[in-house]
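Helix-turn-helix transcriptional regulator
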Amino acid sequence: MFEERLYQLRRERGISQEELANTVGVSRQAVQKWESGASQPNMDNLVAISEYFGVTLDYLLKGDEANWAEPEFQPEMGEQAVYLPLNLRYEYKSSVTLFGLPLVHINVGRFGLHRAKGILAIGNVATGLISIGLLSAGLISFGCLSLGLLAVGALALGVAAFGGVALGAGIAAGGLAVGWVAMGGLAKGIYAVGGLAFADKVAAGGAAFGHIAIGDTVQGAVTFSIQDGGTLSSAAIRSAILRDFPTIPDWLLALFTAF
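Structure:
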């Protein structure tokens, strides 16, 4: 019966009625009534339950065992075998925790949103110290949309950001890069290096626009341009940068004088 299958799924996942209620978006009393057979969830709640446990509606309502596959691994102590349904859903949560979070939480699947939250989190939506997912947020994050201290992704936002579009409070590198130091095809920052570079202080690139501009096509208060096979003097560039911006970090000074 439905109530027996729901109870079994919840116990196998190792969660309380309250945790399941929070996931589905109902009260604990509602889950209690479902498991006692006093009431049944509506279609929206059934879909949410099936997506969370990774089973089909046929299994929930009819008990169709064909919707289950064999476990992918034999559980060790403190681990729990997670059954993979036909919709290719997998979840693992380690029994070891740190700061109240599982050390590892993996929650991935072919359909729907699968949230992972842990020290190491891997999921469609992942939040953690280290997070990997389509949408990821954490100290170190990797994903299509990535937010973190160090962010890597198609769209990356962080103190250090690397991606197709990178927005960084510190360093940004990507096709389109905006940051304190920006490096990319199109770069905008206090300091910028790129095919097209705009900078408040020093810009270097194919086309450079800044107080000090270094490159082929340049515009600024102080310019260094390569025209018709000309060369640039590293000593002259170094002297000009140190004269106007004496506190520039050494590694940035080395970057610009390399031109």
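The longest helix spans residues 2-13.
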